[in-house]
Every structure is written in structure tokens, then in C-alpha cells.
Design goal:
globular, 4-stranded antiparallel sheet, about 90 residues
């Protein structure tokens, strides 16, 4: 019996809605969109100190985003993490 160490790669990942597809990634102060529901905040250590990272989920396409608010890094900002698993 073989156990997979890594999850299988999705051949056809779920598509982003138009609003999520328009989010500029990795750029601090780039806007999100109205259908992103804010989740929890957390603090993470960076070279310049602690930064706030906020989790968001799109109500339309279930995309999961993190927004990193690092004032010392203009290339922080939006990161797409994937989609919520509809089976859960």
C-alpha cells in the first residue's frame, strides 16, 4: 500500500470569478473587491518587524486570499492560496 506524501496536482483548478481575476497580486495597497469576506487576522514576523496578514474568502468563487500589510515591502499585498474545498 502506497501513501502519497504530496496531494495530487489538480489538472483543472476552479476558475476565479471576474472580480478575483482582476485583483493585482503582490502589490501593497491594491484593492480587493466587494464580495471578499474578511476572516481572521494574524501577525507574522518579517525583516522589518511584525506585519498583519488578513484572510479573505470570495463569496462568489470561494477563492481564498491573504492580504499582507507590510509597510516596508511594496510587493506584499494579495496572495491567492487556492479555493475552499466544496466537499467540506
Amino acid at each position: 500500500m502506497t501513501q502519497h506524501q504530496n496531494p495530487p496536482i489538480e489538472l483543472n483548478p476552479p476558475a476565479l470569478c471576474d472580480a478575483c481575476a482582476g485583483i493585482q497580486r503582490n502589490w501593497r495597497r491594491a484593492p480587493g473587491h466587494a464580495e471578499l469576506m474578511q476572516g481572521k487576522n494574524r501577525k507574522e514576523e518579517r525583516r522589518g518587524g511584525l506585519v498583519t496578514v488578513t484572510r479573505y474568502v470570495c463569496e462568489r468563487c470561494a477563492a481564498v486570499w491573504d492580504y499582507e500589510n507590510d509597510k516596508n515591502n511594496t510587493h506584499a499585498g494579495w496572495s491567492l492560496l487556492g479555493h475552499l474545498d466544496p466537499a467540506r
